[in-house]
Design a protein that fits this description.
Order of helices and strands of chain A: HHHEEHEEEEHEHEEHEHEEHEHHHHHH
Strand content of chain C: 25-35%
Number of domains of chain A: 2
Number of helices of chain C: 7
Low-confidence stretches of chain C: none
Structural class of chain A: alpha+beta
Chains: A alpha+beta (388), B alpha+beta (440), C alpha/beta (230)
Shape of chain A: elongated
Shape of chain C: globular
Strand content of chain A: 15-25%
Oligomer: heterotrimer
Number of helices of chain A: 15
Number of strands of chain C: 10
Chain lengths: 388, 440, 230
């Protein structure tokens, strides 16, 4: 609007002070961008639409306990089940036992239940026909420099082969890509091997399945189907617990940490200090300009419009810094992720964070400008002009 | 203004050098510096000049409460957040570090990252227990406990009805208690041998529902009773223990176990024991002291927590620093006349610079102390838990605000104050005297 | 000549803490349309207070002021602001320009309150600057102008919305002799050729010579008036 020029000029009246304050605001919102991205990625993990139609069945006893393979046909027969796959945790590590690789031995139809994992048809076929074949997530391959056709050694922390060696050999036959990075980011880090090869090679598995993944025909029936699946093994020596993928992810995330609380507390502290800092700047700015504000009023600007102008100035200050800070976060994150060669997979700043950020900028701007704006509004023209 | 530019560049270089040295300074070093500074202030002429200039500034602080408050609060925020985040890393590492000692060992299958992923067959266990170097009790039995470490799903305290969490269940051998003298029963009693009974750690009892003496839990399809609660003051408190044979039954492991924990006859015996066991062709095992084992488990997570703490702290520090710059530039501008007058009288540039920096650093110190105290008051001993690396249960640990951490916080505060005061101070000293005197 | 300003029984009392100070006592004063009036008096005589009341910057404690038929003593603050925007222009001793705006933008300021477009505003400001002889300084900031030039920009701002009344408080108080004469000459032109009514407070008798008549104030009361041949 036409007042923008005046407000802008007022804001930059003392360039140094405004710029220094802006840097502090940028720092605060840069932090916000980074932290909120982490927070929302944790809360979004596994919350995909496909995930809602999938159930996970594991041993009720513990997540490291296996289940009998016979459950496969039993689950298939449950009403509402579209397809069943199974997988075992392989416990892979590359070169160093502490270099964990996210690896599973999977049933032949495993990928059918995960339409959101993109992999070429020929690569799928190669996986099915190559005993020692492995499908590797894009980011994982990037991290270690693996390519299709490579023969790579992978240790298992848990399962040795029949000779007692923990070193296994695999042929990379394909690369996996997650179609939706936000909810399926971790698909890029997976390593899939054939269950048959796994079970044949190690004496310790003895034909057991680690867990089952079931696709239901109707999402709304998910709970009923889950209960029906658990009923199959009730009171046996392999009691199961079936949850939707979403519920399982959320439960797992919760066990890692209450991320929301931690992020919230940090940002609380950050914004509190920011409030004081910008508040101080605005108070100083208005205090220095009493005669100018008085002149505006003599010219005919109403008290209310003076209030609005100071508030606008304060919000503008916050918005300028906030946009720059959030923008910086949006730009930095992919650069850091890329630069780490796939080791770090940081989430990016999403729409939710931007919306929240903008609301915070406006809100903090108003709070910070409230008192100075009030003072400006109540300025007595005569006293101000006389220098009192 | 080439000169100004050169000076600014020079200042930045000076800053880099000073900060590098500061980062590495231990607190006795800083104390020595402080004493030297005090001596200079009180005993030399320039020093006393500085004191009088500084006095003027400090005595008028009350007039600038608002803007001085900005520095104090900003820095308090940085130090508070930094110390709190680092105390998580500290507490976690501490809990794991305490769990082990140099007088006991863990033996696992070779190449296992942790107990849970190791498998030891019955014969191997027998061999291990007879090895040279393991302490023996009065009956001549080796102080070794063959243990089965697994995960169990238990309902979480205060969670939804079917919300479960994973806890590490340790099936211990006959001498399981003897190898861990730090473990004490604090409620109820230990489990009865051969019975489906559990004795739960304090940390686990805090997180999961029903873990009280007399309480029952369902493990899979079976009901177990809680016989008592034990405390160890370290990571083991987050576990639940039971008779190894019964656990093995439930988890269908037969005679195999995951690990053997044993006490050494004496710490020097470690080398012989390790050599003997690792050379044995019938075994493929790794022998580490419990101290090494648990310390290593904490490495990954601790590193991540520290990186997070320092990253967040750094960004906040930049914000606080610019806030300090802002305030001090304004303060210097407001006192331009006084400073110019002093210089016209004959005070040289140095006292002015040092005085401004003293003022800034005093404010920064106040902020650092407040931030550190707040972090200590709120977070020291605060209970937290997370899925620990290398275990399959949630590890309870307490945040720890150590004196070292507080000193780190103070260091950061003073560093921020130093930078925040340096540039305004130099500008104050270089103010053209006549211009400043003319300024209205 | 029609009367622009009619002041009857005007009083102003200030409260400073517990003290009540009566600055103006029962003033009666008329100013004709198109007149150029000077107010003189020793400091503390209340001349600035009277000026502020005439300009609608303050409200009287007693009596009435009518400007252009409008009883401004009856207007509330918001309405008074609107009235000032269109009816009065102010010139201050210390110019009171916005230091971060160019001369052009400073002059445009009162026009922000109107519904004129950006282009219109620019045009009017240019005309006003031309009138005061500073068209070539439109893009300069106040710090780049001399005292006299700044005052002339201030006058341009005062007339840009074409008010009938110009209120000037010691307009030459901070200027050297030459600049003062330039400014006063400009005021005379505005009065004589453009029909602006001007009320000017001054303590400089030489400045008062430019006015048609001078009123004297002492201790809050009018003590007499001197007329000059127009």
């Amino acid at each position: 609007m036409k007042y923008l020029h005046l407000i802008w000029a007022s804001l930059f009246r003392r360039k140094t002070r405004t710029v220094l304050t802006l840097v502090s605001i940028i720092a605060a919102f840069l932090l916000f961008g980074l932290l909120d991205a982490v927070r929302s990625s944790f809360s979004q993990a596994g919350q995909s639409a496909n995930g809602a139609a999938r159930l996970q069945t594991g041993s009720k006893l513990s997540f490291i306990q296996t289940l009998p393979l016979s459950l496969t046909q039993q689950i298939e027969r449950v009403d509402g089940v579209k397809a069943v796959a199974y997988a075992n945790w392989f416990g892979g590590a590359y070169q160093d036992p502490h270099n964990q690789v996210f690896s599973f031995a999977v049933s032949p139809n495993y990928l059918d239940l995960f339409p959101e994992i993109a992999v070429g048809d020929d690569q799928r076929k190669a996986f099915a026909s190559t005993r020692t074949g492995a499908l590797v997530g894009e980011k994982l391959a990037q991290r270690f420099g693996w390519k299709v056709g490579d023969r790579i050694p992978l240790q298992s922390n848990i399962f040795p082969d029949r000779s007692g060696s923990k070193n296994w050999q695999f042929d990379v036959v394909g690369i996996l890509r997650a179609s939706d990075k936000k909810t399926g980011g971790w698909f890029d880090q997976m390593f899939l091997l054939n269950w048959k090869y796994f079970d044949d090679t190690t004496p310790y598995n003895q034909g057991a399945a680690g867990w089952y993944v079931t696709r239901v025909t109707d999402v709304n029936q998910a709970d009923r189907v889950a209960k029906a699946i658990d009923a199959l093994s009730a009171n046996s020596d392999h009691e199961t617990r079936t949850q939707t993928e979403q519920a399982a992810s959320a439960a797992w995330m919760k066990q890692i940490a209450d991320i929301g609380l931690i992020v919230g507390s940090i940002m609380g502290a950050v914004f509190f200090t920011l409030l004081l800092l910008s508040g101080n700047t605005m108070m100083q700015a208005v205090r220095e300009r009493t005669s100018e504000i008085a002149v505006l009023k003599t010219i005919g600007f109403s008290s209310r419009s003076v209030l609005a102008m100071v508030l606008a100035e304060s919000v503008l200050l916050l918005v300028l810094g906030g946009l720059a800070g959030l923008g910086l976060a949006t730009v930095i994150i992919p650069v850091v992720s890329a630069g780490s060669g796939g080791m770090l997979n940081l989430p990016s700043v999403g729409a939710g964070s931007w919306t929240l950020g903008l609301a915070l900028m406006a809100g903090i701007g108003i709070v910070v400008g409230a008192l100075p704006a009030w003072n400006a509004m109540r300025l007595n023209i005569v006293d101000a002009l006389a220098g009192r | 203004m080439r000169v100004t530019w050169l000076i600014n560049v020079g200042l930045v270089v000076l800053l880099a050098v000073v900060l590098a040295a500061w980062v590495m300074l231990p607190w006795p070093g800083a104390l020595a510096l402080a004493v030297l500074l005090a001596a200079w202030l009180l005993l030399t002429r320039r020093g006393r000049q500085t004191l009088s200039v500084a006095n003027v500034g400090i005595s008028t602080l009350s007039q600038r409460l608002g803007s001085s408050g900005v520095i104090v609060v900003g820095i308090a925020g940085v130090v508070g957040v930094l110390v709190s985040l680092l105390s998580m890393a500290e507490g976690y590492a501490e809990t794991l570090r305490k769990t082990g000692g140099t007088d006991s060992v863990i033996v696992m299958r070779g190449g296992s990252a942790s107990e849970v992923s190791s498998v030891l067959a019955r014969d191997s266990i027998a061999l291990i227990q007879q090895a040279d170097g393991i302490a023996r009790n009065d009956k001549g039995e080796p102080l070794a406990s063959e243990e089965l470490v697994v995960a169990a799903n238990l309902p979480v305290k205060g969670g939804a009805a079917d919300e479960t969490g994973s806890v590490q269940l340790r099936g211990i051998g006959e001498r399981g208690w003897a190898v861990r003298p730090q473990a004490k029963i604090i409620a109820g009693k230990s489990f009865g041998p051969g019975l489906r009974e559990l004795v739960v750690g304090q940390g686990a009892a805090r997180q999961f529902a029903g873990l009280v003496p007399g309480g029952t839990v369902r493990l899979g399809a079976q009901t177990w009773t809680v016989a008592g609660v034990f405390a160890t003051g370290d990571a083991l408190e987050s576990e639940i223990w039971a008779d190894g044979t019964v656990v093995s039954d439930t988890y269908r492991r037969g005679g195999s176990r995951t690990s053997v924990t044993a006490r050494l006859a004496d710490p020097q015996a470690f080398k012989t024991l390790k050599a003997a066991l690792e050379a044995n062709p019938q075994l493929q095992v790794d022998v580490t002291t419990t101290l090494d084992y648990f310390s290593k488990q904490s490495e990954g997570v601790t590193k991540v927590l520290r990186i997070i703490g320092i990253t967040v702290g750094s960004i906040m520090a930049i914000g606080a620093m610019f806030g300090a710059l802002n305030t001090m530039f304004a303060a210097v501008a407001a006192r331009a006349r006084e400073i110019a007058t002093l210089r016209a009288i004959g005070f040289s540039g140095l006292p002015v610079v040092v005085a401004v920096m003293l003022e800034t650093m005093l404010l920064a110190l106040a902020g650092g102390v407040i931030g550190g105290l707040l972090a200590w008051a709120i977070f020291d001993g605060y209970g937290a838990s997370t899925m620990a690396a290398g275990s399959v249960g949630k590890l309870s640990f307490a945040l720890r605000v150590s004196p070292d951490l507080l000193w780190t916080g103070l260091k950061w505060a003073l560093a921020i104050g130093f930078i925040g005061g340096l540039f305004p101070a130099v500008r104050a000293a270089r103010l053209p005297v006549t211009t400043a005197l003319r300024e209205l | 000549m029609a009367k622009l300003i009619e002041i009857r029984d005007l009083s102003k009392v200030y409260e400073r803490g517990r003290q009540k100070v009566e600055v103006l006592h029962h003033i009666d004063l008329d100013v004709d349309q198109g007149d150029f009036v000077a107010l003189m008096g020793p400091s503390g005589s209340g001349k600035t207070t009277l000026l502020n009341l005439i300009g609608g910057l303050d409200a009287p404690t007693g009596g009435s002021i009518s400007v252009g038929g409008q009883r401004i003593d009856e207007l509330k603050a918001a309405a008074l602001a609107k009235w000032r925007a269109s009816r009065v222009g102010f010139v201050f001793q210390f110019y009171n320009l916005m230091p971060m705006l160019s001369a052009q933008r400073n002059v445009e300021l009162p026009l922000l309150l109107t519904k004129l477009s950006g282009a219109e505003r620019k045009k009017r400001a240019a005309i006003a600057l031309q009138l005061v002889g500073l068209a070539d300084r439109a893009s300069h900031k106040p710090t780049e102008l001399s005292g006299g030039q700044q005052q002339r920009v201030s006058i341009a701002r005062a007339i840009v919305s074409d008010p009938t009344l110009l209120v000037c408080d010691e307009p030459t108080g901070d200027l050297d002799r030459q600049s003062a004469e330039d400014v006063l000459g400009l005021l005379r032109v505005l009065n004589r050729d453009h029909g602006k009514t001007i009320v000017m407070v001054t303590h400089d008798p030489k400045a008062a010579e430019y006015a048609h008549r001078t009123h004297h104030l002492d201790k809050g009361s009018l003590v007499g008036q001197a007329e000059l041949a127009a």
